[in-house]
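Throughout our pipeline, every protein is held as a single compact record rather than as scattered files. Nothing more is needed to write down the fold, since each code stands for a local backbone conformation. For reference, a complete record is included directly beneath this paragraph.
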Amino acid sequence: MDDAPAARSPFNGIAVARTLPAMQIADDDATLMLRYRDGDLQAFESLYQRHRGALYRYLLRQCRDRDAAADLFQDVWGRLISNRKRYEARARFTTYLFHIAHNCCIDYFRRRSAHRVSMTDAVEDREELLASPGHERPDAELSRLQLERAFRAALAGLPPEQREVFLLHEEAGLNLDEIAYVTRVGMETAKSRLRYALAKLRSALKDERAWRDDTR
């Protein structure tokens, strides 16, 4: 299981370059962030506990390096903390949080590019996606693990922009408008990337199931 690192503070954050679009969306997380902005530390703890898992998985699946994901994880929260006094509830909190995460990933890949490190490294182990009841037979467990490995490989094989859109949709629960904002593209582009990502993942899993059936 991929567990998010424990909280560490204080952080040295970097200002977010762009402001969120003027979207009057109120949610409980935004209310907590406003409370934290005004000095309520318990509100931050609630936000951290709610979003630490999804954020860490997003970062890990993006950079595919545990140490780098842990550093990025701290960087994201650090930027949020450093910019808390300027926070305005113009969009869902998750949009704000994953916009920061996207910027951190962009900075990370720029640094990697400078060192000529490929973005096609092996995928690290991650939290299991498919539940496994304790009473399953060993062959069923093996099939589940094979499908999971196939999914990991297919996810790693997606073009970076398609992988990110898929992760923002699945991990962060962002809608297409929010994904378009976070990734700085038009909504139709975000929609197309998500459609292609889903099609490729489904095809990979379908091929894996067909191969297993043929070898039985």
